């Protein structure tokens, strides 16, 4: 670490050494642990009355120190430093100094800390030299001896009076949201990927993460030895805490039992601190485990492995919606609906394998081109699509799985492959952001489904299409007879006659003629005209004189249907949404309509196409 | 298909579980047990749905194997599918034609020649 250049005031007095000594009634290994484990350092570093809300000490040669000492009056005193040398359990060389508002060292002490043990007592000798300083720092540097002496008193309390001699504690911060860390811990499929020191693999026989649940697993050491373990969960508080009592050890060898507490703490959005605390029945047991199983180093390596596995884990969100599976499927696959709760910028969507689309979302001052390609469709049950961002690396896979639970639907959303977006280089694409995004989107879906539930009672057929024309023009094409006859009706049909009386209560009476000469009359009665945004019409079959008739092929088809057409414009293009439902139907008419259009909405379009293909295949084979 | 038959078919199709069963059968013949599985439903409950589908003429139970596979009956299913698809096509093809018209309306030279005239009476 560079020295800050001295100013006019006191030069660094390199030959002035401050020596502080204190004896502790505790074994050396324990005192050394208390000085080198940030979880313990936080409890004693700084004078009486101080706390350490931030306590990041990387205890190894070259490891950095960042500690914020908070005084009794709430004032923060940030401190920086570095370890020069660590020789466990006998000595440490480290430098520390207060940081100014800009994070620069105001001064720097170099400390040589020696730990010697005799007759079960430990003597700690600190030799400190002020190696650099700036003007205005005397206030701190002159108070060093008193402050350090006070810290050592607190250290004595920690090592002599508490139970740290029978516990193992460690802690690590992960760049992942808490829910993801929780998932990595509680899902047996993920746990096996990181549990245990390097070189170990783990087989999980059962893992039932709830109070009273049993966890049985065997760890396989690099030397071929097996370590069967059994734990019983005592507390499971999602997503903050897991407590279990553990028993296990080397096969045909000595074992250990202890109570383990894991706490998950969100220290910043998308950053989680995981703290482990194993409490043994005695100091001897604790020392045995540390010695026999290398528990301290092993735990550290386990957390390292977890930090490597976390970025690869998929985000999995499970939510139960109070809506029938069919409504949820429609919401997930029908373009017009998706625009309402999912991405308003979506330009098209079809639930069929191979369908591709892209759309732009402006966020954080940047443009994100979303590129989707559907890979898997099981109607009503599963939808998968590849999801990447134009101009960014990587490709993810998004899967929705639906399971009907009576009137409700359990939806499991899995978003995998997020590590490919290289979140270190592109922080906008960090897993924490996706998790937050999905939570917001599923909340939006919930709200949407609740609204739709009211409409579901009406059960409608919905069709949406985007036209490359301004709204006024599309409206004109819908509401002028000469235009209508040019487009209304399937391919090859003509409209030999029509009369349009365009006003509320007026009608559009028309005749459609099929290519083989078959004529069919129809009628629209205008209920609501709201140019150029909305048109509400009662449709029915008709005859030459304008009466209302039934569908010639189905006596139970609704005699009258209500269609609502809305026109919405965005960037010069018009999204037209046509909703169609029976108008004052009988039960039978409603059922007939449901039967046809339940199969017909785009979510089930795939089913119809599938059926058509199947039938064509049957016909060909005959 | 007779008008009554069509009503029976629509009634059968009005249930989402039955539609899902047909979707499954359009992939291949399937046994009752396999059909029940994704819906977490008891065998008697599934059998009830299958009876409705049989009565409407949409499926039949084979006699060949011990497991009496369910399969779609081509002719009635085809008529129902055609009938339903026709509605979808009516609108989709209408929209296709509307797209063409809108393009014309936005091209000045063509727009002039397609300007609305006075509505005809018949």
Plain-language structure description:
The complex is a heterodimer of chains A (622) and B (122). The N terminus of chain A is likely disordered. In chain A, the strands form four sheets. In chain A, strands 21, 22, 23, 24, 25, 26, 27 and 28 form an eight-stranded antiparallel sheet that branches. Helices cover 27% and strands 41% of the residues of chain A. Chain A is elongated. Chain B has 122 residues and is mainly alpha-helical. A two-stranded antiparallel sheet of chain B has the order 1-2. At the A-B interface, strand 19, strand 21, helix 12, helix 13 and strand 22 of A face helix 1, helix 2 and helix 5 of B.
Helix and strand topology:
The complex is a heterodimer of chains A (622) and B (122).
Chain A: E1 17-24, H1 28-36, H2 38-44, E2 51-57, E3 64-70, E4 76-87, E5 91-98, E6 107-118, E7 121-133, H3 138-141, H4 144-161, E8 167-174, H5 178-186, H6 188-191, E9 201-207, E10 214-220, E11 226-237, E12 241-249, E13 255-268, E14 271-280, H7 283-293, H8 295-309, E15 315-321, H9 325-333, H10 335-341, E16 356-363, E17 366-378, E18 382-389, E19 396-405, E20 408-416, H11 431-456, E21 461-467, H12 471-479, H13 481-487, E22 494-500, E23 507-513, E24 519-530, E25 534-542, E26 548-549, E27 560-570, E28 573-582, H14 587-597, H15 602-621
Antiparallel strand pairs in A: 1-7, 2-3, 3-4, 4-5, 5-6, 6-7, 8-14, 9-10, 10-11, 11-12, 12-13, 13-14, 15-20, 16-17, 17-18, 18-19, 19-20, 21-28, 22-23, 23-24, 24-25, 25-26, 25-27, 27-28
Helix pairs in contact in A: 1-2, 2-4, 9-10, 12-13
Chain B: H1 3-13, H2 16-25, H3 32-36, H4 43-55, E1 59-61, E2 70-72, H5 74-106, H6 108-113
Helix pairs in contact in B: 1-4
